[in-house]
Amino acid sequence: MDSLTHLALGACMGDAFAGKELGKKAMLWGALAQSIPDIDFTASFWMTTASNLLAHRGFTHSFLFCLMITPLMALLADYLHRPHNIRLHKWILFFGGVIFFHIFIDAFNNYGVGWFEPFSHERISFNALYVADPFFSVWPGIACIALIFTKRWLPKRKIYWKFGLGLSSLYLMYCLINKIKIDHDVKKILHQQNINYTHYFTTPAPLQNWLWYVVAGNAKGYYIGFRSLLDPKNKLELNYFEKKDSLLKPVNDHVDVNQLKRFSKEFYTVEKWSDTLVFNDLRFGQILGWENQRGRFVFHYFLLHPEDNKLVVQRGRFKGWNWQTITNLISRIRGT
Fold it and tell me: Is the pTM of this model over 0.85?
């Protein structure tokens, strides 16, 4: 999830844990603990872009990191707030729970997290929640603001953090139900269209959970399209994108190429744009794909010009967005 959402969730969890004892300092501890796994952003200062893609949400989002950092934060908080009546094991449960919730929530996005690092490089990704979904983030955000401006001794503080954590949790469960429904419908339609595939995933289109991005294919190429929960029974328009793996032959021995393949989980295509080769990671969708079915992919990496790839994950994510784009997105969600 985005950093602001993590901060708001952590603040609510901190107040739930020790708001009465520590006041708003408990919110700060919760926000810090919820944000600590994202310390991996510092890797970008010395790593190449391709290496940093694998480092992000890697070890600092693992169960081992959670086990290592939890007692350190618990001991620090226990020491700084003496004298107090909070036992050490409660500090450990609090910090462990908040940090675990961070790496758990991040697994619902399409980027993937390295839960089992360094023992396994497998990335866990449930593809059920867009990385910045306002319908998930707004509730803890409202609760966090309310807690900031409410006196520590007032009983209604409990109502606020329950509101923030409760509604975001309900929305997460709703997203999982949507995911199950979409997968059921899409696989049925793919079968009806006689499309065979070995690689498959669905993930929400930007900023919501009703329109879903669909990818299905094999080593030769992928069928790509969008399916709304409100679409007619068998509606799924797909476009085929050839993988063109052969274009990588001149650069197959490059370290960044192998890292990109591993990062993409083999969901990629290769294109030639004038003087450079472009590696597309399909998992991050197309730029306005519901409007332009042959649109470029958000994640496009310039293989022959690696110095131009600093914002490769975000590049083009909201390029060309305007009020008409939002109107078209809403129309597509409605099945029109």
Answer: yes
